Amino acid sequence: MALELKQNLKLSQQLVMTPQLQQAIKLLQLSRLELIDTINQELETNPLLEEATTADLEQAGKKEGNDQEEWGGQEEVPELAASDAEKTPWDKDAIKETNWQEVWDDEYRRALPSYSFEEKDAPNYENIVASKSDLKDHLAWQIQLSDLSDQDREIAGYIIGNLDRDGYLKATVDEIAEDAGVAAGDVERVLKRIQEFDPVGVGARDLRECLLIQINHLGIEDQLVRELVSRHLHQVELHNYQQIAKATGRSPEDVVKSIGVIKSLEPRPGRAYSAEDVQYIVPDIYVFKVGDDYVVALNEEDLPNLRINSYYQEAAKNGNVSLKAKEFIQEKMKSAQWLIKSIHQRKKTIFKVTKSIVKFQREFFEKGVTYLRPMVLKDVAEDVGMHESTISRVTSNKYVHTPQGIFELKFFFSTGLPRKDGSKDIAAQSVKERIRRLIESEDPARPFSDKQIVEILAKDNIKIARRTVAKYRDLMGILPSSRRKRPKV
């Protein structure tokens, strides 16, 4: 059979991930901080985008009247549908200022809290971040105030340069002496001085030395405390109180008291001077209880309101620009309008998904975590008419403020555990909370074993295996009963 080349025409349809559609999908799964960074970056690179003030938005709303339909007359970004995404008209008639008043439906606007702000108001001084010195800067400042000689200060600089973020020395005395070109005895002498600096215990080579430095500095006279740190620190970590009492010849009660003193010491002296800033969670959406109902409201604080720059709109309409400039304006116009609509669709989707979660998890909002019901992505997807993958993207890295606290939206999706009588399943997260409360309320001298926890939960009509209890306990960072046992003091 001879091989030959032929040309054939074939007509077919397929979904294409356009750049605009990829942007919409990306915006949907971004966290709040990532979204703000993306918007600010787009404001810098796209001259047709600008940030509108509250006064501009109110004025635009008064011009257009108040007869808006639900979520406005704007086209919505279709959910993962590339073919429909290409249908948006981008001719010059479509180049008009976005009417932001039409974006929100009546239900959403009623849910928004009212704010009163004037540009002349003073800034919020709580948002002004002060510079924070790290551990090495703090130690260098103390070296400058000390009476160390120039050579000792140089050695101290080598020592500080070899500290980790927790304040522990990661190089040996001999290595520092070789690098500094001095005797090892001089390095040891300067190290002893640095270990007396604030924070006490900095420059220690291991945990044992760190704790002993703090014991000496605080003038703790209890010899059992010193003995536990010097000889039995590993057993203290394992909570083997009986073995420690037997080895030291002291009573378990004395051992517990001495370990309490050890717990008051700082195992990581450099922690207070960590250069890492605390990242506080800013909720994307709020759930308030008003009367007997729960109201959902998006958090619009710090999110820029975008609109199309009027100067470029007029330039495109009047035709007083070159063809190349007009093509550039058209390209940036498409990008700007698609970004605005993608952000609008993102807000609407988060709003709808949260309302669905509130509907399914009403008992949780009323009574707490122990009343969380089993729920999967499919439940919400069918309720709001979206795909499960969209729900997964919406709930990633998004947080909601509820009467029960701040939770990630993914928290509300949990598998179920069966009940002994065959009734409705109970959420795994609810069972974890019950286990945690049981352990918190147990007698420290007689802690519950995993088997006992299974028996207690069985009385509450919860069917669970012992290994599942052990798994949940490990996930919550709770020690087994043998290591939770404490003698009565």
Describe this structure in words.
With 489 residues, this protein is an alpha+beta fold. The chain folds into 3 domains: 19-113 and 277-414, no CATH class; 135-273, Orthogonal Bundle (Arc Repressor Mutant, subunit A), CATH 1.10.10; 416-484, Arc Repressor Mutant, subunit A (Orthogonal Bundle), CATH 1.10.10.60. Helix content is 49%, strand content 7%. It has 23 helices and 8 strands. It has a 4-stranded mixed β-sheet. Strands 1-4 form a two-stranded antiparallel sheet. A two-stranded antiparallel ribbon has the order 7-8. A hairpin with a 2-residue loop joins β5 (399-402) and β6. The protein is extended.
Question: How many domain regions?
Answer: 3
Strand arrangement in the largest pleated sheet = 3-2-5-6
Please report the number of helical segments: 23
Q: What sort of overall outline do the alpha carbons produce when their principal axes are compared?
A: extended
What would the average pLDDT be, to the nearest integer? 81
Rounded radius of gyration (Å): 32 Å
Q: Strand fraction band?
A: 5-15%
Low-confidence stretches: 64-121
- Structural category is alpha+beta
User: How many strands in all?
Assistant: 8
Main sheet properties: 4 strands, mixed
Report how far the terminal alpha carbons are from each other. 94 Å
DSSP helix fraction: 40-55%
